[in-house]
Amino acid sequence: MSRSSSKGRGPWLGSPLSAGLTIGRDQLGYVELGRSGQKWGLRRATQAPIESRLFVGDASVPTGVAALVLAIRAALDGQPPSFGPLHVSVPDAAVRWSLFELDALPGSRAAQDAFVKFRMERDLGEAKCRYTSQALGRGSGGKQWLLGLALEEGWHQVVEDALRQTGLRAWSLSANTFRRFNLHHPRITTHSGALVTLEPDTWSLAIWDAGGLLRYLRSQWRADDLDEREIALEIERSILGYAHGESGRTVEQIWVCAGLGTPELISLLNARTHRACEVLEFTDALDEAAPPLPDFPARAAALAAALQA
User: How far apart are CA 251 and CA 235, in angstroms?
Assistant: First the structure.
């Protein structure tokens, strides 16, 4: 996996184009943007089904690649992306993550990756994964925080091979929640808070402290029988567990990324919290004169990928 910054940054500096591809279990979304003044205008946005479910069990590389190639070609509809960075996102629940609190960071990025690989391999056992790390910064107690990410090697190969067979190359590969967190970082990290992301196939929770440092991460696949009420209850339990786990921890605001089931989830969360949730949209980054963004389940995740490096 490639690195994803913990701080909000716009698309590739100097490039008038940017594209985002989000790959789910059984569907993908693609968004291509062109710079219009200080904002970004929509060039195209499409979706396509994936005939063979991805990120389920051990990867069957040939089957997964074939299904993903067909879906990418259907989404592009014979029109290859214009020159510019392509940022690819995968479901949060497909990614394993760990947060490490250290007296000092290993001296280089390669050393940080090696440290993450060594520590996470002990927990993941025989699972073969592709690892990467991201330095998050220094906490209020003076310790350095390091984020470790791991994606199963077989599924990483499926994504990599499918992109290569369709003539594409990922400028970055990350999980959906990190795309959202990066994109909205300047706005949401002025105080401690939590970010809830609801996708067609996953739900996720990220919590940060008053300094804007990620401190807690959780994600689960959305089972067919898991409705918004049960998700809200799990989110409430996780936030309470985090807040009570250490003296001085707070979650001052809950932010929710718009998606399927958002209104009902927000209503349920508001009934459980002392402060109303706030919904995060993407309209501030887009040119108002641009064509309206087509409505499909993966559009927000694809747009979040396209809007940042």
Answer: 12
86-90 and 129-138 as β-strands: parallel, antiparallel, unpaired? unpaired
Count of helices and strands (H, E) across the chain: 7, 13
At 148 the three-state DSSP class reads: strand
Taking the CB of residue 250, how many other CB atoms lie within 10 A of it?
13
Q: DSSP 3-state assignment of 238?
A: helix
- Asked whether the beta carbons of 40 and 286 are under 8 A apart, the reply is yes
d(CA 151, CA 103): 27
- Find the farthest-apart pair of alpha carbons in the chain and give their distance in angstroms, rounded: 56
State the Cα–Cα distance between residues 62 and 298, nearest whole angstrom. 24
Q: Per-residue pLDDT tens for 146-193?
A: 999 999 999 999 999 999 999 999 999 999 999 999 889 999 999 999
C-alpha–C-alpha distance, residues 246 and 29, integer Å: 39
What's phi and psi for 133, nearest 5 deg? -135, 160
Strand 202-208 with 214-221, pairing: antiparallel
Entry pTM: 0.88
Q: What is the CATH number of domain 17-306?
A: 3.30.420.40
| Cα separation, 142 vs 163, whole angstroms | 41
HSE at residue 112, side-chain half, CA atoms within 13 A, is: 22
Sorted by where each begins, the domain ranges of the chain are 17-306
Strand locations in 176-277, DSSP E? 193-198, 202-208, 214-221, 253-257
CA 115 to CA 86: how far, in whole Å?
Answer: 28
Q: Is the dihedral of CA 255, 3, 140, 220 positive or negative?
A: positive
Q: Which of 192, 157, 155, 151 is nearest to 175 (CA)?
A: 151
